[in-house]
Description:
By secondary structure, the protein is an alpha/beta fold. It is built from six helices and ten strands; from the N terminus they run βββαβαβαββββαβαα.
Amino acid sequence: xxxxxxxxxxxxxxxxxxxxxxxxxxxxxxxxxxxxxxxxxxxxxxxxxxxxxxxxxxxxxxxxxxxxxxxxxxxxxxxxxxxxxxxxxxxxxxxxxxxxxxxxxxxxxxxxxxxxxxxxxxxxxxxxxxxxxxxxxxxxxxxxxxxxxxxxxxxxxxxxxxxxxxxxxxxxxxxxxxxxxxxxxxxxxxxxxxxxxxxxxxxxxxxxxxxxxxxxxxxxxxxxxxxxxxxx
Length: 232
């Protein structure tokens, strides 16, 4: 089984090739150059691993939530490669990938959504191929995070790097003594590939034309009045 996976939902470009349990990973700080870098990075990795696109069994991508432009890039590349080589596509939630990267069991995955908001979801993490959703992805202000029951929850992702204090106030009784796992900040294509394998085994793939991003936020641009209201 060979799976090509990539993520462009954050400032980083992450590309991975999963081959029968062996993973080759390349992470690059791309800022806003994902569209220019992603195809060369994919080709370089395939060449390095002596693998061709025709040898793949599936293409997986970080479907979001995350940067709108980044999500469209990843989805478009996945569709193009898969369509050209008649491959199934596996969209993987970026927040689930973050949670699966953590060594902790109860994980609150959170990405900075800009404009004073975060993308957030919660998972029970039993391993990289068994990460069960407890709270679905949502968009909110850091101090208005959705309620969670239980204790010993740990935060991961850029949202916790930016809004740790506000998010901690949303969960005054729920967080573990180690409230943030600083080793997990950005989604990794290696984990996306691992989660994609589980989805393939469950038959959860889509045809290229049916692949789509997970946006969560329905509106990108704020009106002048809305911006002024946010600024108080």
